[in-house]
Amino acid sequence: MPISHHPDKLFAELSGKELSQIARTSADISFVLDDLGSIQSFYSDNKYLAKQITDDLIGKKWSEVVEPDSRTKVQRLLDDASPDTITKFRQINMIGNERNVALPMMCASIKTSSNQKIIVIGRDITEVSRLQQNLVSAQKEICQNYLQISQLEERFQSIFEIGTESIVIVKADDEYPIVEMNRNAIKQLLLAKSNCIGKSLLSLLPANELSNTKNFLQGVQDTDEPSILKTLLRNGAAIQISATSFTNVRIPYLLLNLMPLDLAKASSLLESDSLTIKAIENNAYGFVVCTPEGLILKANKAFNKLSATRGEQDLIGTNIRNYLGPETTDFDLMMQSLNGKASSQSCISSINNVSSSIKLVDISAVSVAQPHACIGMIFRQVDSRQNKGARIDKKLVRSSQELSMLVGKVPLKDILAETTDLIEQLCIKAALDLTQDNRVSASEILGLSRQSLYIKLRKYGLVDLNKDID
Predict the structure, then answer these.
(1) Residues 394-445: pLDDT tens digits?
(2) CATH 3.30.450.20 residue ranges in the chain?
(3) How would CATH label the architecture of 272-387?
(4) Taking CA atoms, which of 34, 119, 262, 358 is between 20 and 30 Å from 426?
C-alpha cells in the first residue's frame, strides 16, 4: 500500500478531541504561543516534565524560560514557523524547578493559518542526555586510567632495572620465549636485548643441558614454588637459575634470576652498577626495602625526608607501618598480596611524620623471593608532583569540569570533538611530564611519530614557535 502524501485527507474526518489525543501521544509537551513568542497555554502528559516545569509560564515569553544557550534556537523556531510545514527539530533546554537542572527536549514549531498561533511540540530527551553524560564520564575515566597505567609502568620498569640481580621473564610454553630482561641479564648473557626478546631461552644453553633445564622449568610450573638449578650457558659460563611462576591475564610466565657461580666474575660484572645504587640513594622518590612483615632493612634519603627522621639508622628495624597515616587498609591488603609472591602492587596511602604533618603518597611495591624474601617500595608524594611544575593549568582543568555541563545542551558530535582534543592535550602534557620533556620518549609512550607529536605541540601551543624544533 503506497504511503499517503496528503495528511490533510488522512486526518480530515477526525474530530478536535481525536486530534488532541494524537498530539498528546506524539509529544511529551505542547505549547501554544502568540506571534510574539509569549506562552498562551501548555500541556504535558509526561509526569517527569509536569513535575519539573514551573506552573507560572502563562504570559511569559518562551525565550525567558529556557537556558541562555537555547535562546537563539528558540528565536529560529519562532521565525521559521509556517502554516505550510513543520520546522526541523532543535534541542531546547528548559529551566526546571530544581536548581542547576535543565530539561533537554527536541522541539519543532508550526504556525496555524486559522488564528496565527504558533504551536510547539517537544519530546523529552532526558535519558539521551544522561547517556551522553555517562559517555563523557567514561572517556574521562579512560584517560585517567591510561595516565595511571603509564605511571605504573614507568615505576615498575625502574624497580625492574635498578636491582643488582639478573632478571629474565619467559613465557611458560614449550619453547620458553624471552619476554623481558633487565640490564644485568643482558650483561650476564652478553647478548643485545633485541637479539633476545622473542628468542627461546633454551637456545642460550648447550645441547647437553636442554633436557635437565626443561624438566626444571616444567617442575617450577607444576609446583608453583621457587626452585634453583645449576647449569651452563652456551659460552661455558656456570650459572645458578632461581625460578618462580606467575600468571598475567591468564597466561603463565616464569621469573628467572640468573646468578653466576663465579662470585669474583659476578662482582666484576656488577661493579659498574655502584652508580645505580648511588642513584637510588639520591633519588627524589622515597625508596625502602623491608621484610615481608614490614621491618625496614634499607631506606634512602628521600624517605628520610618524607618521614622527617634524622637518618637511616633511625629507620632500620622499625616497622614501615609506624610511618603511615591512620588509614592503612589498602597498604595491608597490598602487603598480604605480596607475601610469598614475586609480583608487584601499588596503593595510595599517607606518610605521618614526627611533625604531625600528613603527606599523601603513591606506593609502588614489588616482592623478591631470592636469595632472601623482601619487598621493595617506592614512595611518590602525590601533591608535590601535582603542584611542582604541573603542566595541566587551571584553565584546562576548568574546561574538563565544564565539559560535562555541555551534555544535553549541545549536540553529541560537538561534545566528542571537544572531548577528543582535551584528552589528547592532557595525554601529551602527561607524557612530557613523565619523560621530562624528552619528545622522542614522549612520542614512543603516546604511539606517535616524532613529526605527528610536533604538529600536535604546535596545535595546542605547547612549543615556542620562535624556536626551531629539531
Answers:
(1) 444 445 555 565 565 566 676 677 677 778 888 888 888 777 788 888 888 8
(2) 7-124, 165-264, 272-387
(3) 2-Layer Sandwich (3.30)
(4) 358
> Does domain 7-124 match CATH 3.30.450.20?
yes
> According to CATH, what is the number of the domain 165-264?
3.30.450.20
Question: Is the dihedral angle over the CA atoms 180, 183, 188, 194 positive or is it negative?
Answer: positive
**pTM of this prediction?**
0.35
